[in-house]
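Intended use. Records like the one below are meant for learning the mapping from a protein sequence to its folded structure. Do not use them to infer anything beyond what is encoded.
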Amino acid sequence: MGLADIHIHLLFGVDDGAKDEDEMHAMLDAAYQAGTRVLCCTPHFHPGYFGDNYDKVNAAFKRLSSYVQKTYPDMALYLGNELRYEPECVNWLRQGVCRTVNGTRYVLVDFSETAPEKVIGNGLHALLNAGYIPILAHVERYRSLHGRIPAIQAFWHDGVVLQADTQSLLRGFGLLVQRQCRKLLSLGLIDLFSSDAHNCSSRPPEMLTCFNYINKKYGADYAAALCCDNAIRLLRGEAVRKDFS
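Structure written out for the chain above:
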């Protein structure tokens, strides 16, 4: 079964992910070998941190697409951004300088890991009120949300899609993050896992180990939903869950 990864930083020279074309190809190779067949590139977007990288992203994506067509014709490739939230981000989205996920209403958004719960909540609701569907990147890593299950449940019920990193499940960000990740998984509060890969070593494009863990502990259907099916629905602009669209 092919896996789907909708949060990855492998486009070279545009953010803190792949540094050059060789590393980009190596990350793509590693993703393919680990079972990924659907991949959405999500370079960081924040003018203050990464400058105006719009054209650089398009150029790198074009080169990656050419490599995929020649090397892995059975891999589907898409484009979006990981938006670092700022109050003016709705304008960035409406102007088209920041990409939604594959042109849908879904927006992959992150916050500082030290952001207060109120800041995260206000930002998510600003996007919802503007007509977008936020995908909260690596929900398990925000310190202010550790142990705050009711707050996360409220985001979930409001229609926020909750994405977790595969490395969190495997203790790549420490024991506290792993505990939070596994708790949210057990409660059904994770909609999908993605690699959030930045390289091939410390933050690799690994999806298969995560799939195998969920499959063994919760069954094949749950593993397929979180590591493939929900991501594909999202890329098509379809509802990930039945309680919102």
